[in-house]
Structures are given as C-alpha cells and as structure tokens.
Amino acid sequence: MRHPYIFVLLLVTLGFSHSSFSQLSRAQFIKLESALGDQSFFSGHLTGFMLYDLDSQQVLFEKNSQIRFIPASTTKLWTLFASILILQDSTQTLRYVTSGDTIKIWGSGDPSWKYKNFKQPDFQKLLAPYSVVQFSDANQVSPGFGYGWQWDDYYYDYSAERSSFPIYGNLLEVRKVGNQPTVFPLLFQSAIRMTTKPIKELERDFHSNTFAYNPATFLGRERYIPFLTLPDLFVQMAAEETRKRWIYSEERLPAEHRVFRGSSLYPLLKEMMLESDNFIAEQMLFMISDRLFQELDTERAIEYVLKTHLSDLPDQPKWVDGSGLSRHNLFTPRSMMTLFDKIYRILPEDQLYELLPTGGKTGTLKNSYQAATPYIFAKTGTMSNNHSLVGMIKGKSGKMYGLAFMNSNYPYSASTVRKEMEKVLVMVRDML
Predict the structure, then answer these.
(1) What is the pTM of this model?
(2) SS3 helix, strand, coil % of the chain, rounded to 5?
(3) Same domain, 59 and 121
(4) Residue-range definition of the domain harbouring residue 238
(5) Is 135 found in the same domain as 40?
(6) Strands 102-107 and 132-136
(7) 389, 403 contact by CB (below 8 A)
(8) For 18-62, how does the pLDDT look when each residue is reduced to its tens digit (9 = 90+)?
(9) Are 422 and 311 in a shared domain?
(10) I want to staple 388 with a disulfide (CB 3.0 to 4.6 A). Which of 118, 314, 381, 397 is the partner?
(11) Residue 184: its H or E element
C-alpha cells in the first residue's frame, strides 16, 4: 500500500517517457492504432487517448494527447487534488469574532449545512452563548455563477449557485401533491404562481425567487431546483434553523478572528467524485481559497494551485471552475494523466478506490463498463458533444494502468460514444 499523502508530497513527480512502448507488442500497438485511427468510429470527431504504466511511469500508447479538450466533470479530479493538498482532512466552515451577546460570522464555503446526509457542523454549540448572529458575505469575491456556465442551466439542480455560507445546498425541494407542487423550505410556498405556459415542471424566474407551474401539465419529476441566493433570504432561513436572531451587515473580516472547522472532508470528496456533485466541487474551491487567502476567490485559488503544486504539467491548462460546468475549461490527455499520477501517489490505495466510480458497481459508472470482474475505475465527464474518462484500467493480468480517453465535437449521443469507448477498453483490458 502506498504511503498516505502527508508523507509523500515532495516525492510526487512525473516524467513521461514518450519513446517507450516496451509493454505493448507490435501487434497490440497496431490493434490500438486501428481502433482509434482514420477508419474507426473515432475518426469522425476529435479524440485524445493515453495509456500509461503507473508503476514504471511510462507511456504505452498515445493519440492526440497534446490536444486540449473540454473536460466536463473530469475537472473534479483537479479539484480533488487541490482539496487533498490544501484542506487535507477537514472542512473550512466559517470565521468569526464575538462582542457581548453578538457573534459575527463570515462563511468559508462549507456546503454541508442541511445538504444531503452529511454530518452537520455543531452550530448550536457555537451559537449557544449569543442572542444575535451577524452575518457578512463581504469575503466572497467570486460570483454565484462560474465563468462560462450556461445561463439557461440556472433552474437545474446541477447548477446551484455558489455562496459563502450555503444552506440546503442552495436548493429548493419540490414534491408533487395532486397536480400541485409543495416546496421546502416552506417560506417559498407563497412565491409559487400558476401559469398557462406549456411547462412541465416548477420553474423559477431568472431574476427572482418567484416560481411558476402549469397544473394541467405539471409532472413534478425535478425534485430540486436552485434558489437565488440573497443575503436577506439566507439570514431568514438560518434564523429558522437555529432559532436565533440573525442580521445581515456587509462588514469586512477583521485581521483578528477565530476559525471554526465543521467536520471531516472525506465524505464530501466521496460524494463529489462518485455522484459528480457540482455544488460540492465549487464549494471546495471556495474553502481552498478561504484556507489560503481568507477570501472566496476561485480564480485566485486555481492560480495558486497551478503555480505551486502543478507547475510541472506538460501542457498549460485552462482551468476556470471546480465542477467542469464551464466550457472554458481545457485540458490535454497528457496533463490529465500527469495530474492523475500525482493523485495515485498521494492517496492511500483504499481511499483511491473508494473515491473513483467503479464500472458496473458505483457512482456515475454503475451502469457502464459492466463485467464479472470490474476493470474500470475512473471519473467521467459529460456535457453536450463532449465525453471523457480519466482514471485506471485493470488488465487481465491484474495490473493497473492509467487511462485518459477524451472526446469532443461529436454529433451523437454520449451513450453512443461510451459504447464505442467500451469496445476499445475491453480490448485494452484483454491485451494487458
């Protein structure tokens, strides 16, 4: 088993040897070249591929590995790497100062409060001695939406807004009762209106927390939709949850203050990776920025990680968010493999397997790459016309190899591309 990351950070290096194909026979090399070549399915769009020996740190096969692709949710591997190095084992929840019966707090980006089934920060204990809670978001530099996010994704749960102190994952829960929606938190119920527009779900206005549904066509299949994050709304919801008086004051964080860290980071990382949770990924970069700079600035956090821990990448990436929602993200397969090799050497083996979706078994790969013996352990990334897979493939010999398989600009469904990828990867599994 590899050593835990805290003992090996200084040992993480990667020197690709592009001339070595010693573990593939000529026949195997030709088969891979044919499977990805000019007469293959992959000739109709841009495809990048790298197969890598994690033990010898040598490239076995590559095709277009120097070309930049839109990574979609494989971007979360970059967020995972940064989180492990900087946050290590705990969330960054809030900063605070006290004065008499008042506690003043600044959120640090922790996404766990009343979100899914995560262990809850003990706010009751922290707030118990105080009758007034003063909240400020003056430390949030980055806006609620990331650079390059699709504007019309604003009412889908995978595009919840980022904020300094989230509650409920910044999502409204919707339940269908008869032909009407009932929502939680209940304070949003009075903001729901009926409409004759031909819509099938409860939809939010773009600019406000007002909602509409058509009783004749309402299906109620969208269980969660994002609400517009506003300071006054947050203090209202926080007051109801804590039974304390909350007020909003846009006050800057003083130099002298205390730090509150809520809980273990690992459950959040696991949800982010297995279920590809965009909201958690974005809040991770907020917490990283807070830990480093005492402000929530995604761009600054990314710049720091690239200049320090990722200065040896073979190709300069364009990395703009934590989740991969942005089409401005651009990574090459060989930079992806460089990053994954670092993760492979930092994380204990059991944690790495728990964090990566497993083909036919867990997470976003539960229904893909099914086999009697799992052979794919990797992060997926999908958005319109782009699909990638980055992680590990287990050969029939039992040996594990690194893999980066990236596709862009195809006119088919993602499932069509995935099926063709599977044919290639079964061949790789069988030859290794």
Answers:
(1) 0.92
(2) 35, 20, 45
(3) no
(4) 94-263
(5) no
(6) parallel
(7) yes
(8) 444 448 899 999 999 999 999 999 999 999 999 999 999 999 999
(9) yes
(10) 381
(11) strand 180-184
